[in-house]
Amino acid sequence: MARMKFICDAERCIECNGCVTACKAEHEVPWGVNRRRVVTLNDGLPGEKSISVACMHCSDAPCMAVCPVDCFYRTDEGVVLHDKDVCIGCGYCSYACPFGAPQFPTNGTFGLRGKMDKCTFCAGGPEKHGSEAEFEKYGSNRLSEGKLPACAEMCSTKALLGGDGDVVADIFRTRVLTRGKGSEVWGWGTAYGKPGEAKTPTGGRS
């Protein structure tokens, strides 16, 4: 069975935050929580890179290891989810996660602790798929509809890849092996021909 994974191609990410907006809109994420965010390294300096970060649905998830009430569980597709009815809001998972994925919703001036919230890989939660209770607690369950996560589908440069880990790895591996410099990072030379190359008219759309 497919194991779902995310990969973000730092060479393609343009820090547009489209993935963040798509996630917020798709799941009506609580105020103060960003299930996905874009992090920029060396901002304004040579070698600046941006990367989209969320729960990476680890095979050996530290959040699962430290949770004292075992509210985290892994689906058959390898997606790490949590049961908000079991969660006690202790915050251990927030400290353990290297990606800062589990977060407290922020309500009021100083914020109130409550049930933890995190990226679900658009796979919902333990409630019945497509139910109102599932959407209220966890957002849309796109995976049960045969769709990919909204953040990956909305990425304009296809920097963020989400889906079957083997397929995603193959796509990224092909990019790395064929990647050049400058415009070739994007593959524009492949799409439009390199300077000086004669193009053969096709007489129609490709």
UniProtKB/TrEMBL annotation:
Entry annotated with the keyword Metal-binding: yes
The protein, known as: 4Fe-4S dicluster domain-containing protein
Cofactor section: [4Fe-4S] cluster
PANTHER family: PROTEIN NRFC, PROTEIN NRFC HOMOLOG
Pfam families named among the record's database cross-references: Fer4_11 (PF13247)
Residue stretches making up the 4Fe-4S ferredoxin-type domain: 4-34, 47-77, 78-107
Gene3D superfamilies: 3.30.70.20
InterPro entries membership: 4Fe4S_Fe-S-bd (IPR017896), 4Fe4S_Fe_S_CS (IPR017900), 7Fe_ferredoxin (IPR000813), ET_IronSulfur_Cluster-Binding (IPR050954)
Keywords on record: 4Fe-4S, Electron transport, Iron, Iron-sulfur, Metal-binding, Transport
Molecular-function GO terms, alphabetical: 4 iron, 4 sulfur cluster binding; electron transfer activity; metal ion binding
NCBIfam families assigned: FDH3_beta
CDD domains: DMSOR_beta_like
